[in-house]
Request: fold
Amino acid sequence: MSISINHPELGLVQLRTRSNVRRQIIKVTQNLVIITVPPGFEDSVFPLSQDTIEKILQLRGKVVARSGDGRFKLGEPIETLTFTINIAYQTNPRLRIYSAHLEGGVLQIFMPVGVNIEDDIAQKAIQRIVLKFLRQEAERVLPEKMEYWSNQCQLPYKSLKIDTAKSRWGCCSSAKDIKLSCYLMLLPERLIDYVIVHELCHTREMNHGPRFKSLLHSFFSDYAAIELAKPKWDRKVSWLKR
Reply:
């Protein structure tokens, strides 16, 4: 027996029943999820639990990494908050260097002719260039955003530092010193604003208890939905941070 559904987050999910299996087996490709169960267990699969969805997304991430996706590519622009990343080859084939300039909202990165963009060395070189400009733009844009939201929310802070943290978007100390990762520039603007307000709320409430949630809710009434969306964006941009 085979049943197919179109899941809003996972795409096509196919349920199969096989008499020769004893437990649930999940097989994931970039475009299809196949769940195989023993006879009699069909009703336990749908609707998919959140744990199952998370497991499938993790498996798909590994498939994408193995397939060569999740890498910088020629002719595939990447959007950030303030600029678009575009990668091309040097117009002069004798130039054996990487170069880049940011102008008019476009970060143009030029590779030496003959270099394979799929090579890890090329990927790392491009990543270093992107990080340089991400941090440059973050230092230009995020302090202004922080000041705006601090005034809007009436939540003062002591200092702001922009860093290159990969494991978190922001943090706030008990002394009201806030750090924001320059990788925030890869997120949608509303999510960036949410992270900033989240850290500002920590200047008053240092934990994530009821009073913190109530304070955050007063500025972002849909904070619960935003929190659910954050892991999706973590996965979406994780390859740019590795």
About this structure: The domain at 78-241 is CATH 3.30.2010.10 (Zincin-like). Residues 85 and 124 are 15 Å apart (CA to CA). The longest strand covers residues 11-17.
